[in-house]
Amino acid sequence: MTLSAPSFRRAAAVALTEDEVARIRNDFPILEQRINGHPLNYLDSGATSQNPISVMEAEQEYYEQRNAAVHRGAHTLAFAATEVFESARETVAAFIGAQPDELVWTSNATEGVNLVAYAISNASLGLGGPDAARFRIGAGDEIVVTEMEHHANLIPWQQLALRTGATLRFIPVLDDGTLDLAAAATIVGPRTRLLAFTHASNVVGTINPVAELVELAHRFGALVLLDACQTVPHLPVDVAALDVDFAVFSGHKMLGPTGIGALFGKAELLAGLPPFLTGGSMITTVDMEHAEFLAPPQRFEAGTQRISQAIALAAAVDYLTETGMDRIALREAELGQRLVAGLAEIPGVRVLGPAAGIDRIGLAAFDVAGVHAHDVGQFLDEAGIAVRVGHHCAQPLHRRLGITASTRASTYLYTTTDEVDQFLAAMHEVAPFFGVKP
């Protein structure tokens, strides 16, 4: 059955029930298939989520009814395409508590981080004029990240430090998978120009204290960039209330298609940043020696945009909004605790990050003594259970925790309690299967 909206209406702020999750699953055709003779148990939403029918229909409808270049043509179809494209921007911006002119379309969160890093680099070269002077950094300045960052929120800052002569510093991670806030208070200081950190770790599940870190950075006039890839899809996020200067997230982790993400930036900051990519659609006047650029967000959207993907992402946001982000968050918190508590009971399994009972997002990464993560993943796949294995693009964090790879199970609004229990039951069989005694 084709549905254009979630299978139930939003209720009070209580966790989604098993019956509601069962109805939600009707909107996700991919979940009906079998893997290796078993019903698919998809526990890899932390990497890429699945798409409801309404999202796929939104993209298809665009190509069937409105396909045209946006912000360019003067014909009816082009106006219709531009209208729905910009309406998508309004929808997604409102979802995170931003204004439409504060939301820049990107291909993914990685591009969003790189956009800011390269724009700061351009400002540091003197581009952008007086309005960009506040972003200039160089020798003697410091960029601060954390030891738990995804490579996408680490390597761009490494490269910026190399280009500008700034120093890159990091806030350490404690044994329990939380940030060393005492160390942070000594690392962030007068020389700090930017603090970049993840809202929630994609490995250990830790939810970082955004307010405390933002206050610390702003105390010294530093900018803050928040990697919200693991929170915008799973928790209510209000960037204005958080007071972050920039934030990034990806569509494919929040029921949307691949190839679309977004950068949030405070309006006054985007107005001062010089562009990263240049070309068509982001200019006002061009001659052979000079160009003038549009105001944000179009200043940062050179070339043909991800039109159908943006529209589909807005449909995904509608689905999540209708379901209720608070209800999703409560449901996933329950599943996350069930994962951690169940894994902790299995001999030889070490859960990474906060212990059971401590707040985390709905995922759990772990190490099985004597069994490589890839072998664990292959064993689970034979049972139809899809998990993530490897370093999860967070090698420094794994190194800090004393391992090279881990296995990660991650949930979403369509994950059932039975699926979590099926996964835990299979995990009890891993060590015996490989002949490992705990």
Automatic annotation (TrEMBL):
Residue ranges constituting the Aminotransferase class V domain according to the UniProt record: 42-423
Keyword line: Pyridoxal phosphate, Transferase
Cofactor(s), names only, from the UniProt record: pyridoxal 5'-phosphate
SUPFAM superfamilies per UniProt: PLP-dependent transferases (SSF53383)
CDD domains for this protein: SufS_like
Pfam families hit by this protein: Aminotran_5
InterPro entries: Aminotrans_V_dom, Aminotrans_V_PyrdxlP_BS, Cys_dSase_SufS, PyrdxlP-dep_Trfase, PyrdxlP-dep_Trfase_major, PyrdxlP-dep_Trfase_small
Record carries keyword Chaperone: no
Catalyzed reaction equations: (sulfur carrier)-H + L-cysteine = (sulfur carrier)-SH + L-alanine
EC identifiers of the protein: 2.8.1.7
Record bears the keyword Transferase: yes
Gene3D superfamilies given in the database record: Aspartate Aminotransferase, domain 1 (3.90.1150.10), Type I PLP-dependent aspartate aminotransferase-like (Major domain) (3.40.640.10)
Domain of life: Bacteria
PANTHER family linked to this entry: CYSTEINE DESULFURASE, CYSTEINE DESULFURASE 1, CHLOROPLASTIC
Family under the similarity heading: Belongs to the class-V pyridoxal-phosphate-dependent aminotransferase family. Csd subfamily.
Function of the protein: Catalyzes the removal of elemental sulfur and selenium atoms from L-cysteine, L-cystine, L-selenocysteine, and L-selenocystine to produce L-alanine.
Protein name: Cysteine desulfurase
Organism in which the protein naturally occurs: Cryobacterium glucosi
